[in-house]
Amino acid sequence: MKNALLAVLVISPLFGVLSTMVVHSRMSFFSDALGHSAFTGMAIGAICGFNEPTWAAVLFAVVFALLFNLVRRRSALASDTVIGVFSSTAVALGIFLSTLGGRSFTKFNSLLIGDILSVEPEKIALLAGILLVVLVLWGLSFNQLETVFSVAIAVVVTVSMTWVGLLVIDSLLVLPAAAARNVSRTMFQYHLVSLLGAVLAGIAGLMTSYYVGSSAGAAITLYLAVWFLGTFLARKKQ
Prior knowledge:
Oligomer: single chain
Strand content: under 5%
Low-confidence stretches: none
Number of helices: 11
Radius of gyration: 17 Å
Distance between the termini: 40 Å
Largest sheet: none
Order of helices and strands: HHHHHHHHHHH
Mean pLDDT: 82
Number of strands: 0
C-alpha cells in the first residue's frame, strides 16, 4: 500500500501535466491508442519469452508514438483519423498475436482492470524521472516539443497500465485538463488546476479502493468525473 501511494503521488502529477497537452492538441484518444499498442507490445514480449514483457511494451509504444507523429505531420488526414488507423491496427495485431496458435486471451485480462498493489519500486523510479524531465521541458516549451511529450505519454501509459487498467487510462489523460479548462482563465491556471485535480483524485481514489476493495483506476476516474462536473457547474454559474 505504501508503494501504491507513492506510485499515485508520481503518476497523478504526470497525468495532470500531460493531460493539458492531450486536450490542447485535441488528441484525447491518443492515450487509448497507445494502450492498444502497449497491449500488443506485451503480447510480443510474452511470445519472445521475456521475463518482463512490460519493457517490450514500452519499446513498442514509443515506436508507435514516433510513427504516429511522423504520419500525422506528413498526411492531410485529421488527427482523430490517424489515431483511429493506428489504434485499430494495434489492437488487431495484439489480439492476433495473443491468440496465435490457439493461446488463451484470458492471461491478459488483468491489464484491462489493473492492480495498483502490483506496483514495483523500479517502475516508480522510472516514472519519477519522467515527471522531472516533463516538468523541465514544460518550463522550456510546450508546443515545440510535441513529439517528446508523445513519447513521454507512451512510456507513462505503458508502465502504469498494469496499475490502473487499460479500460480507464484514457480518462486519466483527458478528465484533469477537461475539468481545468472549465474554470481556468489563464494558461497558468489551466496547468495548475489540471495538476491539482489529478493529484487529489488520485489520492482519494486510492483511499476509496483500499477501504471498499474496488479498482483504484476506476475509483480515480470517478473522482475526476465528479471534479469535471463540479467545474462545469461552476463555469455555468460564472
